[in-house]
Amino acid sequence: MKQLPPDCVSYKQTKVFTEHTVPAGLLRAHKTKPGVWGKIVVVEGRLTYRINEPAVETHELSPALHGVVEPEVLHEVEPKGAVRFYVDFHKLDGA
Fold first, then answer.
1. DSSP of 6-51, one letter per residue?
2. Which of 5, 7, 50, 87 gets the highest tally of CB atoms within 10 A of its CB?
3. Domains in the chain, please, with CATH?
4. Phi, psi dihedrals of residue 27, rounded to the nearest 5°
5. What burial class does residue 92 get, using C-beta atoms within 10 Å of its C-beta: 0-12 exposed, 13-18 middle, 19+ buried?
6. In this structure, what are the phi and psi dihedrals at residue 26, rounded to the nearest 5 degrees?
7. Cβ atoms of 24 and 44 closer than 8 Å
8. DSSP conformation class of 2
9. What predicted TM-score, i.e. pTM, was given to this entire model?
């Protein structure tokens, strides 16, 4: 699994989504803005996290395993039953 750079700082967090409230845009390929990293945090349940480039990677996220989104890399999520999760956005300190 990818890791956040050590000099990244959190600057914004989404609300907690469920399998019923997850925005449609997160369910299909999308990407963050330049310089923006994401940390997908599962509070309860399971979530499939698919990184679509440069090579396809699929991870099952849980409260014990978060996902890291690299800047400008296409990715998507898929709830696996009942789930609660949020995304914590990061940028490099000073950026």
1. TTEEEEEEPPPEETTTS-GGGGS-B-PPTTEEEEEEEEEEEEEEEE
2. 87
3. 21-92 (2.60.120.10)
4. -85, -10
5. middle
6. -75, -20
7. no
8. -
9. 0.95
